[in-house]
Amino acid sequence: MLLTRGVEPVPDLDGRWTIQRAERHLRVGELAGARHECVDGRLMVRPFPPATESIAMAGLASAFVPAAEATGRHVFGRVNLTFSPTCWIQPDVTVLHTLPASDEEERWVPAALCTMAVEFVRRGAPPARRGAGPQPAEDRVDRVDRRRRCAEAGVPWFLRVALDRRPHRMTAELFRRTDGGGWAPAARAVGGQRLRVRAPFPIDFAPARLLP
């Protein structure tokens, strides 16, 4: 199998990827260093982020655990958050309100179990590809619009963290899904400011403190 660089779709089976084909053809060992997501049957492969970004993701997930567990939520790193047999994403941090009930749900977590998905982006990347809709300037070039997919699936909360080598420019934005199926800003923090909210569970962190 040929895995392309960046976010280009894998050419064989392009448009025909499903959960069943992924389990049959994608070996965990071969993808240990890659993120793989699927949109409308098109598999997207991207290398995992640099170590500094991984530290930020792990630190935020660890900070969430006490308050999330106290309210009956469960904090995970990347999971295959699944919307349909031909569409799944891998949030950088995933908060579930209900644990998977089977081995299959462990591998392919239904979006209906998700309270909040967290996406890390790096500030300064080029804008998203044309046709993806309006995107913040710090978004990576990416065909996987995770925020839109979560909104369509009814995931109630979405957190975007924009990383920057200059700590005072790092940003965290929390969005709440509206009854109309869109997103409404719930809270925002820049640099050393603290993002403090009570829902979906008590959250309190400063974006600038996520990177060493």
Descriptive report:
By secondary structure, this protein is α+β, with helices and mostly antiparallel strands. It has 2 domains: 1-48, no CATH class; 50-209, tt1808, chain A (Alpha-Beta Complex). It is 19% helix and 31% strand. The chain is built from 4 helices and 13 strands. It has helices at residues 19-25, 51-70, 103-107, 146-153, and strands at residues 34-39, 42-47, 74-76, 81-84, 87-89, 93-96, 109-110, 114-122, 157-163, 171-177, 183-190, 195-197, 203-205. The strands form 4 sheets. It has a 6-stranded mixed sheet, with helices on both faces. Strands 5-4-7 form a 3-stranded mixed sheet. Strands 1-2 form a two-stranded antiparallel sheet. Strand 12 and strand 13 form a beta hairpin. The longest helix has 20 residues, at 51-70. Mean pLDDT is 83; it is low at 1-9 and 125-141. GO terms for molecular function: endonuclease activity. This is Putative restriction endonuclease. Keywords: Endonuclease, Hydrolase, Nuclease. InterPro entries: Nuclease_put_TT1808.
